[in-house]
Every structure is written in structure tokens, then in C-alpha cells.
Amino acid sequence: MSESRGHARIVYRDERGTVDLRPADAGDTPAVQEQRPTVQELTGPVDDAHLAYLAETYAAVAEGTAIPVRADMIRPGMDVIAAVRLEDRTVGTVTAFNGSAPWVRVTWESRSHADSVMGDARVFEPDHHLIVTVGSLERLYSASVARLELAGR
Predict the structure, then answer these.
(1) Residue 26: left if φ>0, alpha if ψ -120 to 50, beta else—which one?
(2) Which pTM does this prediction carry?
């Protein structure tokens, strides 16, 4: 990494390539979302076959107590159900990169050593679905979130 006058350049040896860092400008940060997102905004397009797979894999999706949320819609405070042990973890930070190969890095604190199988941070494509508990969405947005109907969506 090289740095000069508040500007830095990181050269990676993998697919990320070169990243230039600079001080943030006023228009760089997205506006704070004033309204809670709808279920359709959180899930994005989910075809019936994928939704059926998620309902079969995660009992909470079939029961309506969790919904698939796109990685680019994940926010700190959401509880994500881990695929390995089917236990939830609260999201700590979310970092998004919107370059030529966009990605979203989600971090959470492991609650036990066994959770470290999946690690404390994962990188996802923006349209990858993570399973988020409805309870954490209600807590985060202070409003009732409609349950995702599995049939006739």
C-alpha cells in the first residue's frame, strides 16, 4: 500500500486488482433510508424454485419466521441464520464494493468456537441471499414486516 496526501493505493495480487482510497466527499455516502424497506426490496427477485429450496433447507423460511435477504440489503443488527449450525448471528458490519466485480462483506461475532467454521466475516455477491430472522427485522425497523408468502408470490 502506498499513501500520499490522504490518498492511498492498494494493489492486490488477486481478482480485486488495484483499489484507490481517498477522503470521502459529501456526495459519497448514501442517504439514510427514511422508510423501512418492503419485503420485495429486501429479497429482490427470488424464483419459486430457489424459494422452495430455501424453505426446504431452512425451517424458519418455511415457517415464515425468516426471509431471504439480498446481501446488498443486509444491515448491522439483522440476525442471519448460519447455514452450518442453523443458529442466528447478529450482523456487526457491512462493507460494500461497487466496482467491476461488486461484493458485500458481512461480519458478525461468533457466539461459540464451533461457529468459527463459517468465520467472522464472509464476502458475498450482492444478489446472494442470506436468511434473516423476521424478529430482527421488526426490531431493526421498529415496525411489523410482512411475512413472505411462499405460494403465490
Answers:
(1) alpha
(2) 0.66
